[in-house]
Amino acid sequence: MGGHRQVAAGLAVAQRLKAQYPTQVMVTLLGSTPAPLATATALQRLIQHFAPTAQLPDDLPSLTALYQGCLAQHGQPVLILADDAADAAQTRPLLPPAGCALIITSRTHIELEGMMTYNLDTLAPADAIALLHSIAPRIGDAAPELARLCGYLPLALRVSALLLDADKTRAVDRYLSQLAAERLRHLADPDSDPNDPQASVAASFALSYAALPEAAQQTFAQLGVFAGSFDLPAALAVVELTTKNTKGTKNAKGEWGSPL
After folding, report:
1. Could you report the per-residue pLDDT of 91-100, keeping only the tens digit for each?
2. pLDDT exceeds 80 at position 43
């Protein structure tokens, strides 16, 4: 379900397994988008991570065999985190060889042979309120209503709390009114589902986006050209910035999202 800590949960599990699986790589499958990543493309990206100069075959069976071989010959156990999977058909070819592991996060229930499943639920009201207070204590007694408007979804809760913590001039009561109105606007869309929890997430993001300076809004919009993970040089090229003027974090390979 959107707004749940699927990625965070997957990353947390992967981190706990770091000793058993020293090499960890994430691939974003875009299963919740109108254009999920093709399985062949996912395999190609994973193969290129382990064998950048490998000749990539065109057919799925050959790609799957090459992928399995890359992991088996890597020299140490590998863990693959497949984020936002669409279905079993998309992820089955990603099953690794013996000695390696695969973590799948998805908004839909996926069953694969030998797989253990764990379902994430919304936060309990008390936990949602505690999360809000831990980020922005000034929310105070408004926390129960804000938690309700956020649908008790961790992502919506964090986005709202971070905005209120960063902008101390924004009145909490006024933000609640704006969030309620934005949520209703989303639900008024004839194509929307009245029970869709995405209304809470979309409303939180919309208000946070509106609070950004115009230049930051433009940068955020420009980064939308990326369908999945992107590295720092690619981001700089899109927004026409320089490394000197850019602040951010990245991993040792200068990548955001892959590898872990």
Report:
1. 999 999 999 9
2. yes
Q: How far apart are CA 209 and CA 206, in angstroms?
A: 5
The 10s digit of each residue's pLDDT in 201-255 is 667 767 777 776 777 777 777 777 665 566 677 777 777 654 444 444 434 333 3
Contact 79, 64 (CB under 8 A): no
Residue type, 15: Q
Nearest Cα to Cα of residue 102 among 27, 153, 168, 172: 27
Q: Measuring CA to CA, how many Å separate 137 from each of 89, 151, 168?
A: 45, 19, 11
Map out the domains of the chain as residue ranges.
6-106, 125-211, 216-246
Q: What is the pLDDT of residues 107-155, one digit of tens each?
A: 888 989 888 888 877 889 999 999 999 999 999 999 999 999 888 888 8
Q: Report the candidate in 121, 115, 120 with the shortest Cα–Cα distance to residue 80.
A: 115
Which residues on neighbouring strands pair with residue 81, listed in sequence order?
Answer: 26, 103
